[in-house]
């Protein structure tokens, strides 16, 4: 193994969080090596289906038989299609062992899952940071909203968030560029909720699509969202935030960024004399050659389960169970979002009303349970998202007529339908964990990850509460034919498919019960930072990635301050 060259910083992974790390480091002049296991995906030129119409795709966008056999696992994901499969891994690329069923959704390329994500972004509030302590279901977070507020604003100004200022204490307002609009039926439901409830409010979703545009995004060469709703193919207009359209090209312009693709970080190397990491051990995907890269600081942004894997695999005489893992808690308290519950309904009337485009967000009802008072039946909070739409598809199937009449009839939209979902906080549990297989390795010789993650009775109680509250709100607003669906019972939906897995290397003030301090540094190896979802002590009810970005920007600036003060 030969030593390649030195950098100030090594960042592992170029997805949502890694993109933010390199943007912050390079902007302040730090020479940064970004190591990415996937291939290069250049903004615009590497989005092969961005302009393709469905009828131009060989299988009209559907999953093929080969997808369903060769990629049985990953092709379960809702966004996996003929138009997007090149942004997902193949199952064989990284085998893992499901001790309990867990669908691990992965996208390995420059940009990671930032190309695929659904872009919903809400801030956490003090309710989420304080809830684990207050309701005694996890270790106390070492930070509170005031630590994060400036970093949320910092990230949002650059990313460009669509949304309105709603004044909701448990979902603080974001810095926004404009907003998408509710359609008339959604507005009617929102009005009905406003009239009947003092504890809840329906708002238009906040998302990283440019409903409007400001100087910061224009300077990045991005333009306004046209509501094509083809985002997960890559947006040639840069109208949604991805590492590829935003943070990475910005960082490259500084001249301080080196990107190394097709390279897996196998482990972080520890030096017992300095009590610090010296760098990382890598494997070249094509040649299988191993190399060491050295730096002052290592940032792990390989996505939640991969950062766990890398650290558990970073064994030394001092840390035989994984770097910084004296308390044995690494890999434990993996959590995710409960997406089991869904409600559908019809909404009579409003036949003369329609909407423009395919809006890239829904209407949200921020959490209203376990916020100001504790529920008797379950812990944790959930938010609700819903949309109202004209049912053109069902109408098409049922349309009568022949030839031109048939085609003309198809253009008439059907009645209004409502689709409503929950996003529920799954409580961190010691039993929900990942660990390394003692004997099975993947095709690169890395230990396979064992996932042992499941729902609990609390998740069922929360889902029942959602069914009750959602049905009540829709009934009061005038909806009919309301149906509830447990997607686990109906389709065998497993944890993982929501792609919000977090934890395993949690933050906390106490090194006996946590792995990372309040700035995301390993308690026992302070020049290693973990700022992807692995660092999360609990998951809250909000979509997680905005918080990963804000935590990353905050930790990166802290790391640079420490380096400049010669403390690292
Ligand atoms: C369809 C879809 C919809 C989603 N919708 C939302 C949403 O609306 N809101 C939200 O907040 N989140 C959403 N998510 C989740 C969101 O995409 C993730 O939370 C986010 O991408 C995580 O960022 P990350 O930086 O941790 O990881 P990623 O974006 O996955 O990036 C990790 C990178 O690390 C690389 N890597 C992995 N292992 C190694 C290694 N050993 N060495 C080197 N490189 C490595 C990978 O190749 C990858 O590029 C969605 C995800 C999907 C797929």
TrEMBL record:
Keywords carried by this UniProt record: FAD, Flavoprotein, Oxidoreductase
InterPro entries: FAD/NAD-bd_sf (IPR036188), GMC_OxRdtase_N (IPR000172), GMC_OxRtase_C (IPR007867), P2Ox-like (IPR051473)
One term of GO molecular function: flavin adenine dinucleotide binding
Signal peptide: none
Cofactor(s) the record lists: FAD
Domain Glucose-methanol-choline oxidoreductase C-terminal: from-to ranges: 431-551
Domain of life assignment: Bacteria
Matching Pfam families: GMC_oxred_C, GMC_oxred_N
Domain Glucose-methanol-choline oxidoreductase N-terminal residue range list: 144-314
SUPFAM superfamilies xref list: FAD-linked reductases, C-terminal domain, FAD/NAD(P)-binding domain
Family as reported in the entry's similarity comment: Belongs to the GMC oxidoreductase family.
Official protein name in the record: GMC family oxidoreductase
Species name: Sphingobacterium gobiense
């Amino acid at each position: 193994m030969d030593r390649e060259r030195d950098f100030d910083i090594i960042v592992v992974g170029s997805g949502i969080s890694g993109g933010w790390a390199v943007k912050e480091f390079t902007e302040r002049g730090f020479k940064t090596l970004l190591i990415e296991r996937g291939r290069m995906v250049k903004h615009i030129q590497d989005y092969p289906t961005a302009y393709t119409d469905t009828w131009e795709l060989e299988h009209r966008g559907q999953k093929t038989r080969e997808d369903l056999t060769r990629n049985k696992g990953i092709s379960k994901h809702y966004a996996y299609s003929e138009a997007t499969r090149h942004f997902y891994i193949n199952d064989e690329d990284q085998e893992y062992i499901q001790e309990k069923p867990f669908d691990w959704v992965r996208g390995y390329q420059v940009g990671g899952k930032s190309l695929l994500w659904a872009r919903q972004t809400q801030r956490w509030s003090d309710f989420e940071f304080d809830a684990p302590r207050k309701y005694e279901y996890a270790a106390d977070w070492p930070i509170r909203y005031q630590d994060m507020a400036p970093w949320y604003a910092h990230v949002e100004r650059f990313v460009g968030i669509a949304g309105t200022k709603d004044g909701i204490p448990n979902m603080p307002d974001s810095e926004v560029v404009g907003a998408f609009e509710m359609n008339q039926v959604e507005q009617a439901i929102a009005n009905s909720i406003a009239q009947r409830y003092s504890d809840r409010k329906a708002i238009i979703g906040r998302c990283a699509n440019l409903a409007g545009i400001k100087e910061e995004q224009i300077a990045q060469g991005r333009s306004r969202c046209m509501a094509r709703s083809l985002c997960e193919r890559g947006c040639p207009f840069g109208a949604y935030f991805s590492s590829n359209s935003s943070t990475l090209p910005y960082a490259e312009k500084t001249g301080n960024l080196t990107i190394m693709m097709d390279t897996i970080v196998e482990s972080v190397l520890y030096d017992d004399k300095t009590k610090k990491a010296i760098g990382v051990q890598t494997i070249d995907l094509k040649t299988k050659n191993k190399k060491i890269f050295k730096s002052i600081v290592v940032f792990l942004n390989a996505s939640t389960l991969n950062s766990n894997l890398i650290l558990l695999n970073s064994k030394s005489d001092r840390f035989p169970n994984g770097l910084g893992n004296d308390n044995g808690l690494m890999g434990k308290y993996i959590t995710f979002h409960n997406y089991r519950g869904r409600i559908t309904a019809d909404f009579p009337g409003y036949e003369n009303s329609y909407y423009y485009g395919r809006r890239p967000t829904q209407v949200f009802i921020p959490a209203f349970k376990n916020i100001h008072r504790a529920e008797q039946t379950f812990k944790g909070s959930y938010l609700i998202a819903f949309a109202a739409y004209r049912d053109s598809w069902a109408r098409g199937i049922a349309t009568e007529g022949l030839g031109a009449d048939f085609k003309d009839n198809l253009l008439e939209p059907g009645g209004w339908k409502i689709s409503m979902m929950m996003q529920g906080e799954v409580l961190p549990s010691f039993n929900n964990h990942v660990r390394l297989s003692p004997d099975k390795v993947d095709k690169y010789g890395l230990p396979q990850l064992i996932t042992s993650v499941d729902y609990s009775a609390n998740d069922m109680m929360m889902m029942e509460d959602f069914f009750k509250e959602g049905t009540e709100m829709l009934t009061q607003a005038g909806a009919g034919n309301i149906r509830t669906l447990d997607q686990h019972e109906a389709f065998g939906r497993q944890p993982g498919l929501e792609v919000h897995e977090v934890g395993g290397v949690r933050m906390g003030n106490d090194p006996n019960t946590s792995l990372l301090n309040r700035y995301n540094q390993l308690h026992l190896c302070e020049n290693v930072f973990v700022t992807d979802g692995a660092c999360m002590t609990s998951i809250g009810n909000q979509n997680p990635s905005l918080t990963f970005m804000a935590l990353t920007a905050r930790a990166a600036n802290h790391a640079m301050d420490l380096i400049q003060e010669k403390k690292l």
